[in-house]
Specification:
about 325 residues; about 35% helix; five-stranded parallel β-sheet; homodimer; alpha/beta
Chain lengths: ~325, ~325
Amino acid sequence: MIPTPYLLFLGDAPDPLAAKVAQGIKDWRPDNAVGQLRLEGCKADLGLPDMTLAEARAAGAQTLVIGVANRGGVISQTWKKVLVTALEEGFDLASGLHNLLRDEEDLAAVAQATGRRLHDVRVPSVKYPIANGEKRTGKRVLAVGTDCSVGKMYTSLAMDLEMKKRGLNSSFRATGQTGILITGNGVPLDAVVADFMAGAVEWLTPDNVADHWDHIEGQGSLFHVSYSGVTMALIHGGQPDALILSHEPTRAHMRGLPGYALPSLEALRDTALPLARVANPACEIVGISVNTAAMGEDEALSYLAQVEARMGLPAADPFRQGAARLVDALLAL
Amino acid sequence: MIPTPYLLFLGDAPDPLAAKVAQGIKDWRPDNAVGQLRLEGCKADLGLPDMTLAEARAAGAQTLVIGVANRGGVISQTWKKVLVTALEEGFDLASGLHNLLRDEEDLAAVAQATGRRLHDVRVPSVKYPIANGEKRTGKRVLAVGTDCSVGKMYTSLAMDLEMKKRGLNSSFRATGQTGILITGNGVPLDAVVADFMAGAVEWLTPDNVADHWDHIEGQGSLFHVSYSGVTMALIHGGQPDALILSHEPTRAHMRGLPGYALPSLEALRDTALPLARVANPACEIVGISVNTAAMGEDEALSYLAQVEARMGLPAADPFRQGAARLVDALLAL
């Protein structure tokens, strides 16, 4: 639907996490990312070639993807000049921001004049039902985190990839803009109207054959007061058979909430599992995914071994180590 | 904002619970309800005079309020004829349904032709912020239920009324269409976009003087898989100092979910309190409100005494008995 390959726009990202949309595309669809475009003050770097719009066009890029998220999702004036020029130079634009491309009069006008398209992947394109809670066939696994942005999507993408490598029956189900930009479809859950959140997740993960696993992309955290309602809807709408606990061990406080400490993995386990069993009494926690990107190799392996012993569950960093052990644990259910 | 008094439209309500919007207006603003209008097959009865549109107009009614909820919020063709006639006879229309009056072309056309207004109280009229989780001044109490429609709104309205009678500083904060139709303002929380739910609750219950209590209207249930995300956002956005557990003891299964049993009050307590303490570590459960409408007096009193002994908390039916004991428990915090 969105023409590829992409030039990834990192804007004036205040830190690497702010560019997680672009990072996700680069990590999971590297063939689709020809380069990055950064503005002055940008604190993110994907390790892709820095390109001007003209250079990226010459390298074949079809779409400029806004790969950076601002709190509240505002398209700043600093960005506007680049986006207008991109349309004029022949790019489509794609974005998962709350602030829609189509709602910016100047962008809409230039897009119409140049015949380019504005792809707002955040906008739900479906009238979702209210959740009915009925048991669905097939299997589902959901990653739940101690915080936002701790690696839930990576965990699901890595487990899906590992299962596909083994010839198993598996789908990644995107619930956020990055996932949708990576896979081309999904539910932009944080833009769904409250009453329909759980129903949208049911719609996204329908009945399937008995040996099929849906890897549902997690959102937010039960312990993040800004977004916990979205997480709750995923747990009940997804009716997972298995949960993965996801954690980032170097975080000083909940993302964006300086007054809030992260919960322990034990607290996450003891909170998430009873809630999941409301929708699926057979649900089990099968493993722990740890984002050890901020740790050296020895420190990471030592931390994982300690968590595994403490929690009595396989613990792995699926990005650093692959998802084989987490998939083994899932299949052992 | 909405012209009063009202004629309450009960339509073809399949059961009394379906008319809870009308019941709420009749119970809490009886002076605003001149009568009820029922269609063939209506299973609800508020005990108000049954009136034709003409009779209600003669009695002074200014607005026909759709006081009945359908699953999914659809305006049926059966209703349409009455609504069109009402506009022609001089009524405004008010509704809290998902399916907006303004989106029905025939209603919009007749309203324009007759100069009448369509009041869709479900539509958010404010651009809500993302929740920041910062501690607010003043005090807040939230009712959380074992199920939907167990009396959470009644509990909050009754506690607010009791505090006002005592000359205390108190507000009812509406989060649903009935509450908004009763009080004239609030947040239609189940129509808010997911990312902004908790922020909308923060907006609804801002900083206040130290002795002021907000009685926040609850929604859904942590144990109702269709709506639990909305409940979660209320618990974290509301950052309540006190929770009331709400229960309806004769319910055979979760409302609308035949496969789901109600949780115990103990399970509700053990689930809701740790989640509330994420946002407000000082939160306490202060009492239990039981909707005993389906019980006789002796049975109700006996049940309440048993719950009180079992749970070690004051248990009362605020509609049957008033909210004095629940308010006492709140003020003892």
